[in-house]
Amino acid sequence: MFRFASCFFLLMFASCGSSGPTKVSGRVTQKGEPAPNVLVVFAPTGSGITGAATTDSNGNYQIGSSVGNGLPPGSYSVKLSSSEVGVAESNPSPGAGGRDSLGESDRSRSSKTQSKVKDAIPAMYGTGEFFKATVEAKWSQSFDFDIPEK
To answer: Taking the mean position of all CA atoms in its chain, how far away is CA 68?
Structure first.
């Protein structure tokens, strides 16, 4: 009976390892400051499942994928990208009566203001060549990334 109980407990503990995906989380900073709204993509270096997340206002992320909250163990290239949307205003010189040379009023010109998108993170960090990660078979794992330039 003692031998059976010992074998039973050994089997129970042996099967207590992480059998599902590893929860992958971390923080992205840029020049040491939190980097909000950064798309973080873990792409497998071979075949496998890709996971992604967007950082919160503190630069924190938690990867989700088709296997749930996390990733299977393996080697990954990490791609970071972000864009800032700014406003590019047109400033045609107004003519007489608050109208520009094309006859548009100040109000009509302001409604034609265009958005300008620029990369907030240098493109080299979005290639997957700069950051690498090895996800291990365990409950959770954290990866922090610092972008040294803007």
So the answer is: 16
**35 three-class SS:** coil
Q: Classify each residue of 43-61 as buried b or exposed e, where b means 16 or more C-beta atoms within 10 Å of its C-beta.
A: ebeeebbebebebeeebbb
Instruction: Indicate whether 137 pLDDT > 50.
Output: yes
pLDDT tens digits for range 31-81: 999 999 999 999 999 999 999 999 999 999 999 999 999 999 999 999 999
Query: Has residue 131 got a pLDDT over 80?
Result: yes
β-pairing verdict for 140-142 and 51-54: unpaired
Residues 83 and 39 sit within 8 Å (Cβ to Cβ): no
Do the bridges between strand 51-54 and strand 64-65 make them parallel or antiparallel, or are there none, so unpaired?
antiparallel
Tell me what pLDDT residue 7 has.
38
One DSSP character per residue, 47-88 reads SS--EEEE--TTSEEE-EETTBSSB-SEEEEEEEE-EEEEEE
Question: CB–CB of 76/41 below 8 Å?
Answer: no
Domains of the chain, CATH where assigned: 19-82+120-147 (2.60.40.1120)
Encoded tokens for 35:
């980097």
